[in-house]
Amino acid sequence: MIKILAIESSCDETSAAIISDGRVLSNIIANQDIHAEYGGVVPEFASRSHQENIVPVTEMALKKAGSELKEMNAIAVTVGPGLMGALLVGVSFAKSLAYGLNIPLIEVNHMQAHILAHFAEPPFPSFPFLCLTVSGGHTQIVLVRDHLNMQIIGQTLDDAVGEAFDKSGKIFGLGYPAGPVIDKLAQKGEANIKFPQPQIPGLDFSFSGVKTAVLYHVQNEVRKDADYIKNNIERLCASLQYTLVQILIKKLIKASVDHNIKQIAIAGGVSANSGLRSAIIETGLKLGWQTYIPRFEYCTDNAAMIGVAGYYKFLANQFSSLDITPSARLPF
After folding, report:
1. What 8-state DSSP symbol labels residue 188?
2. Residues of 117-140 as b/e, b for ≥16 C-beta within 10 angstroms?
3. What is the pLDDT of residues 102-138, one digit of tens each?
4. Is the pLDDT confidence value at 47 over 90?
5. Is the bond preceding 177 in cis, omega lying within 30 degrees of 0?
6. Which of 110, 174, 237, 312 is the most exposed place for a label (fewest CB within 10 A)?
7. How far apart are CA 126 and CA 118, in angstroms?
8. Contact 155, 139 (CB under 8 A)
9. Inter-residue contact 4 to 18 (CB < 8 Å)
10. For the CA atoms of the chain, what is the radius of gyration?
11. 139-146 β-sheet, strand order
12. How far apart are the first and last CA of the chain?
């Protein structure tokens, strides 16, 4: 039996999980509400909160899994990408534990772990599959040939789709994070405002133009009606969400055709969006895709996905030295 303690602290969630032979025994996540007051994640506050949370979160993960530290065979930890100060807390903690317990340390790429979240519980996708990885910082289409063999075949040239949601939400006065609020309001509105969709060749994305179009539209309408946003918030959210989802789906269809792959998965925080989830399922039914959508718990940042990635790296004997350092811009 291979037991792994996993640590995730790349942004504003402190998480610890226990994985046994690839199966998730516990997955504890501590969120940080303070950032909402500032309209975005404040790195210094995030780091301090991680320092406060990491020990109790780890203790809770062990307790829920009915496990003890001495039973662990390795420690897996996120080394990037993410906020440097936040990553430092998790990596330092993981290195100390690995050294003290005299067990291997496994470094994990946060974005690759999002994809491997699909192996946290069945049904598992078959190889090769395509994974649309969408979050506040990344938008990628990844060709996944094996658990540890992945290739980015398309990515954003500017903003990530999560940024487009949050920045547009700021224009709408919805606060931070705006994505979940936009999703909720969009379900009540009609997507009858046309925002332009960028014509980017290949499988790459661009979202900065959509954000600018939203800004200009709102500015023009507010000049005519000061209450425009208040009176049209549901249709604004529905139209924005529809536009962003269509951009993602069109590229995913192209990737599926270009690579002749019908095993399709989504991952990352934005994969919790109901509009995207519905569009993936509907498109899959039309085109004969086998679609894989993780539970909400495994969409946002969590240590279970780090542990699953760590498990497959353990099997491949891919261990790290204790002098590793985190990287805020860790390449895929």
Report:
1. T
2. bbbbbeeebeebbbbbbbbbbbbb
3. 999 999 999 999 999 999 999 999 999 999 999 888 9
4. no
5. yes
6. 312
7. 11
8. yes
9. yes
10. 20
11. 149-155, 139-146, 129-134, 263-267, 290-292
12. 30
Instruction: Classify the phi-psi angles of 31: left when phi > 0, otherwise alpha if psi is within -120 to 50, otherwise beta.
Output: beta
The tokens 């046309």 sit on which residue?
Answer: 194
Helix (H) or strand (E) holding 129: strand 129-134
Count of all residues that appear for the chain in the document: 332
Phi (first) and psi of residue 194, to 5 degrees: -90, 115
Residue 69 has pLDDT above 90, yes or no: yes
CA distance 111 to 140: 9
* Beta pairing partners, 31: 13
Write down the pTM of the prediction.
Answer: 0.93
Say how far apart CA 293 and CA 129 lie, in whole Å.
13
d(CA 236, CA 222): 13
Angle at 125 between CA 201 and CA 273, to 5 degrees: 60
Task: Give the tens place of pLDDT for each residue, 211-269.
Answer: 999 999 999 999 999 999 999 999 999 999 999 999 999 999 999 999 999 999 999 98
CB-neighbour burial class of residue 151 (10 A; exposed 0-12, middle 13-18, buried 19+):
exposed
Please count the other Cβ atoms lying within 10 Å of the Cβ belonging to residue 3: 20
Task: Give the distance from CA 321 to its chain's centroid.
Answer: 27
